[in-house]
Amino acid sequence: MASAKDIIITPTVPLAPVPPPSIKLPSDAPEEEVNVIFRDVRQLLESCGTNLHDHAEVALSALIDRGINTGPRLIGAAKRLGFKSSHAGIILKEGIGHRWSRDENGNYRNLM
C-alpha cells in the first residue's frame, strides 16, 4: 500500500516562494497572495495520487510551509480546498510529533 512518503512530486509550474517556518501569513494578507497559495496547493495536489488522506496531509504540510500555520486557519484552509473540517482536525492532531510540531501558541511547523 502506497503512502504519502512514497509520493514523488515534480512541479510543472514554478511554485510561489515558501516563507521560512517562522513566518506567519497575516490574517489580513492581500486576497491575491492568499489565492496564489491556494492555486499552488491545488497544483501540488493534482500531482499526487488519489488517496484522500494523503492529499489532506500534503495540503496541510504545504499550507504550513506557506505561513497558514494555526489550527483554526489550517482547518479553514483545508475546508476551502474541499476537505472535511473534521478530517483535517484529526490529521492535524495525529500528525503532531510525526509530520509537524505545535508550539505553546498553537503554531504548527513541519518536521520534514
What does this structure look like?
- With 112 residues, the chain is mainly alpha-helical.
- Helices cover 46% and strands 5% of the residues.
- The protein has helices at 31-46, 52-65, 71-80, 85-95, and strands spanning 100-102, 108-110.
- A two-stranded antiparallel ribbon has the order 1-2.
- A hairpin with a 5-residue loop joins strand 1 (100-102) and strand 2.
- Helix 1 (31-46) packs antiparallel against helix 2, helix 2 packs across helix 4 (85-95) and helix 3 crosses helix 4 (85-95).
- It is globular.
Secondary structure: elements and pairs:
Blueprint: H1 31-46, H2 52-65, H3 71-80, H4 85-95, E1 100-102, E2 108-110
Antiparallel strand pairs: 1-2
What's a concise summary of this model?
The chain is mainly alpha-helical and 112 residues long. 46% of the residues lie in helices and 5% in strands. Helix 1 packs antiparallel against helix 2, helix 2 packs across helix 4 and helix 3 packs across helix 4.
